[in-house]
Amino acid sequence: MGFEEDYAKKLITADEAASFVKDGMWLDYGWCNATTEAFDRALAKRTDELHDINIRGGILVNPLHIMEREDAGEHFTWNSWHMTGIERKYNKRGCGFLSALRYSELPRYYRENIRHVDIAVFQVAPMDEHGYFNFGPNASHMAAVCETADKVIVEVNKNMPRVLGGFQSDIHISDVDYIIEGDNPPIGEMASAGEPTEIEKKVARMIVDEIPDGACLQLGIGGMPNAVGSLIAESDLKDLGVHTEMYVDAFVDLARAGKITGQHKNIDKGRQVFAFGCGTKKMYDYINNNPEIMSAPVDYVNAIETIEKLDNFMSINNAIDIDLFGQLNSESAGIRQISGPGGQLDFVLGAYRSHGGKSFICMSSTHQKKDGTMESRILPTLAPGTVVTDTRPCLQYLCTEYGMVNLKGTTAWQRAEKIISVAHPEFRDQLIESAEKMGIWRRSNKR
Asked: Is 87 a catalytic residue?
């Protein structure tokens, strides 16, 4: 049977696909901009007749149709691997929950721990002449999801970029149970962080000064990593490589500025490697059928064993707050979940193990509360319930607008002293007083 004939036999409507869902099932909606759209809309029409439906996914860029009703939580539960603002709202309503993870292990979670998905449904690029549907910029863990699903339903979207990979970036029609031809909506976008602030520029300049020619870059999400990318584009740096969890617009700008060649990469030479990508149409157009781009599963991209093979690896990530022990939080405000751990720890550890590698955690020293008062992001101890994303031995460079310090190899009092040295001056005396009470301060700056 030819691929086209097989395609026609497996073609069904979104309503027919949604009819397969029964009470108590676990579904997988895919990932990020490949999250199902037509199937989700069809399933929402069945809300009243369904109960105890659990759905996995994450990094939503568009709201889910099944969550539009106020009573959605009586029928559906959203289980997120990494939260966006949309998912925080579901969490607040009690119908969405974070599934804590170490992102590099996610494919293994499916293969060895979850082991069973009733239905996996997600958007893909149109089938090619060899019978393959491309996962778009979302190789991530999708092959593992498909391997563990009883039914695999692909939702074809002509606007999904075809992203070339090394492996596990496509699914063959022989492994697909059903095909939906959706309405081909634009691929969900995530806007760039915008023009960097003066604080972000100041931190970025410190980091860029530490980056050598030929370095390999990983940029996290947020204003400061974006500011670093902007400054690199304006710098004299050359022959940079890319190996990153998330591919964003900043890399497109760097590539077009002639900064990225990947010629000094020890592995995947000449290719920009990532686990998933989300940005604007500019980025989707750039990565479409581009041989320079390589979308690969996250257990390869984020593996410490992979990262450490790349010399001069530069990992640049954001944080929310840090305490004087060096415990870092990048995902919660107390018990309120904001995002998730993602792969930050993978890159913090992997960069340090790279020959010439450096891991930078960047943050503003303060933030403004709703009442207009200023609060330090450097705290004596993290607030009760705060999630520790990176444990205290893991951090290397901590950067604020007041400086950059290396925390590796420090004793408790050295660590506290260095962290306080990059705090906002208005809070340093309070932090020293707290450190003395906690028994982690050797001398006072007032003596």
From this structure: no
